[in-house]
Amino acid sequence: MADPLIAVRDLAKDYRLGGHVVHALRGVTAEVDEGAFVAVMGPSGSGKSTFMNLVGCLDRPSAGTYRLAGEDAAALSGDQLAALRNRRIGFVFQSFHLLPRADALANVELPMIYAGAPRARRRAKAMAALERVGLGTRHHHRPNQLSGGQQQRVAIARALVNDPALILADEPTGALDSRTSLEIMALFQELNRAGMTVVMVTHEPDVARFARRVLRFRDGRLIDDATQTPADAAALLGALEEELEPA
Q: Which residues does 83 contact at the CB level (< 8 Å), separation at least 6?
C-alpha cells in the first residue's frame, strides 16, 4: 500500500501575541492520499488557513510531524523548504497574484525561473500548461486584458508548470462570479480525474460540494472528516448554459 501524499501527526501551531499564546492548531492528525480532492472548511479562526500554510511548507509547526511525499518537512531548513515547495506544490490564490506587466506566458514561467530551468524548456512547458487550461491563444495577453476567470486559469497553469504532486488552492473562486466559479471547479475536477491531488480551502458549501472529501476545522481542531459524492461542475455548467441560450 502506497504511503499517503500528506501525513500529519499531532500537528500544532502556536503564535505569541504580546503576552498571550494563541493556539491556532491543536494536535491535528490526518492523511491525504495521492489523487484526492479535499475541501478544507471552517469559520474564521478555525485553523484551516494555518493548516494550509503548514501543508504548503510556508510555515513550521510548533509540534507534531508533517511528511509530504515521504519527506519530513518539519526537519528541513528554510532553503530546503523553499526547494520542496517549488518541486512538489503548486499554489492557487483567491487574488491570482499575477505580475501585471508580464504576459500570461511569462507569468506561468515564473516557478521554472526559480527552479533554474533553461529558457527554451520554460517557454515550451509554460505554453503547454496554458493550452491545458484552455488559454493557448491568449499567451501574450497581460492580466488587465483577461477576465477574472482567465486570470485564475493563468494562475492554475502557473501552479501546474513544475509538475507538482499537489495543488493547494486558497479560496480559488472567492473573487469570481457564480458561472466563472463553475468553470474553475470544472477545471479542478478535470485535473483531479487526470491524477492531480487538490486540497482547497473554502468557506462556501457550494464550492466544497465539488470535492470528494471535506475536512472541517473549529477552534484549531479537526472536528469532521467526511467523504461525499461530488457534484459534477461541468454538467452543472452545461445545464446553466442551456438555460441562458435564447429560445
A: none
